[in-house]
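Q: what sequence does this backbone want?
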């Protein structure tokens, strides 16, 4: 605990809470997302590797391909419990069991609005179906999760009756879904408290983010005694998504000191994997995993962090905990301490007058709306200080790119590396990817591309573009660089060359 800081939680939470991930089921229901077979297997491997207790692999009855995928995930032999979703019909359950899942997750609508408009069943009929389907499952499986769909819009007295019926029939865990994301944290805490008191069965929660309350509602449920939380990587899911895995885990681990079994240092890695497969970019301001979470620009913030990182960071959550890196960034609010430190790290030592001029130039560039990269800073400093620009490690001579609808994009480069000529070729998913891979293939140090952004700075098909990238070296240091021009590929190449020379300058 940080000295001088006390966290009041007023909590009845368990010391341990398990994590149930539904990225492969509810997460894939995000509009525009369709994971490939191979991607689903890789995501399942990753989730199991970081310690997820249960993985909802899919909805086997929805299609032949879905059943094959769920079956294949089960065959991986992962440590996690593999779960399949089923409606409260025997055919769905049988398909789940045929997929050899460890647990069947069965659901039925219980709110009046969903019950009357989707399955057209009475309250009594829902109770009967619930008892029958769970009994059917438990004769064939050791594990059964029961969900009262739209639980938070269900009459609470009736909801308790439904959950009591499920528990009596043999459900091993009951799930409370906030299906359309309408409950508040205080109401969720009250509801879970009542269920916990009146129903003898472990409680799981599944919260949607329609009002941005999914994580808060999940934590409120944990405070009231829920023993398992349902999450997705990056908060993917129907409409506005589900409770985010990284946020939920770190709140429980760091603030509440609840053990989740999750390997926290791999949270950023997992987030980036799913982002790459889903095509949905991680926002820079995304809690826990976003690029800006441990980045500092403001002068007073940078000064404080340089002295003691806990001044302007949570302290109970560090970048190392989640697999992140701390960064000082440049902008119109940058301060002297940050600029001096960044230049010192690059072995550039300006005097006070030169430093003032460098900061003034950086702020002037940033005020025009341009992102100031590490490479820009070094160039500004060298110009003001009159330093001879003779430190280029990599000097590009020629680049040739071949691409087309029936051709694997291939790039060949010739460059001077430490004064010696090198030639290298590489392929990629497209011409830009191939070109950057070719550059990385002749760099003297091992580098990894962490961020790539492109924007048009003029209109028309011949528009000027500005490419900004971030690369990480083998020591975990991250550097920014940029390139501009009327050719996307060449601008990207310029940015990468600038990045290589920047890293080797530092």
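A:
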């Amino acid at each position: 605990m940080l000295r001088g800081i006390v966290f009041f939680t007023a909590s009845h939470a368990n010391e341990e809470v398990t994590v149930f991930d539904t990225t492969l089921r509810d997460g894939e229901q995000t509009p525009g997302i369709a994971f490939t077979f191979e991607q689903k297997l890789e995501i399942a491997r990753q989730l199991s590797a970081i310690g997820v207790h249960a993985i909802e692999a899919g909805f086997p009855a929805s299609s032949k391909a879905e059943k094959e995928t769920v079956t294949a995930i089960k065959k991986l032999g992962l440590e996690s419990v593999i779960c399949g979703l089923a409606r409260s019909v025997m055919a769905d359950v049988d398909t789940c069991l045929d997929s050899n899942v460890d647990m069947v997750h069965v659901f039925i609508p219980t709110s009046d609005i969903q019950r009357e408009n989707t399955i057209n069943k009475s309250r009594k009929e829902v109770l009967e179906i619930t008892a029958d389907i769970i009994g059917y499952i438990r004769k064939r499986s050791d594990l059964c999760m029961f969900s009262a769909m739209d639980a938070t819009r269900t009459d609470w007295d009736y909801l308790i009756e439904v959950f009591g019926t499920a528990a009596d029939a043999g459900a091993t865990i009951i799930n409370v879904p906030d299906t359309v994301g309408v409950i508040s944290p205080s109401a969720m805490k009250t509801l879970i408290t009542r269920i916990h008191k009146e129903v003898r069965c472990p409680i799981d929660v599944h919260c949607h983010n329609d009002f941005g309350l999914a994580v808060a509602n999940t934590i409120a449920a944990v405070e009231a005694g829920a023993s398992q939380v349902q999450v997705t990587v990056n908060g993917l899911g129907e409409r506005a998504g589900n409770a985010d895995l990284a946020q939920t885990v770190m709140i429980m681990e760091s603030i509440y000191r609840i053990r989740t079994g999750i390997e926290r240092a791999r949270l950023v890695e997992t987030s980036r994997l799913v982002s790459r497969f889903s095509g949905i970019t991680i926002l820079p301001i995304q809690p826990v995993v976003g690029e800006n979470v441990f980045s500092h620009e403001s002068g007073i913030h940078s000064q404080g962090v340089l002295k003691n990182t806990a001044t302007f960071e949570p302290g109970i959550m560090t970048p190392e905990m989640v697999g992140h890196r701390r960064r000082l960034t440049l902008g119109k609010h940058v301060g002297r301490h940050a600029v001096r430190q960044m230049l010192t790290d690059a072995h550039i030592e300006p005097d006070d007058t030169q430093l003032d001029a460098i900061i003034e130039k950086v702020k002037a560039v940033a005020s025009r709306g341009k992102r100031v990269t590490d490479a820009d800073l070094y160039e500004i400093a060298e110009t003001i200080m009159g330093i001879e620009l003779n430190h280029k490690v990599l000097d590009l001579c020629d680049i040739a790119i071949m691409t087309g609808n029936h051709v694997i994009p291939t790039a060949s480069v010739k460059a001077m590396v430490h004064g010696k000529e090198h030639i290298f070729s590489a392929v990629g998913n497209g011409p830009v990817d191939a070109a950057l891979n070719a550059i990385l293939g002749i760099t003297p140090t091992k580098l990894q591309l962490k961020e790539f952004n492109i924007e048009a700075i003029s209109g028309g098909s011949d528009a000027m573009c500005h490419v900004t990238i971030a690369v990480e070296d083998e020591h975990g240091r991250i550097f920014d660089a940029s390139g501009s021009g009327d050719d996307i590929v060449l601008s990207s190449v310029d940015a990468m060359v600038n990045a290589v020379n920047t890293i080797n300058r530092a």
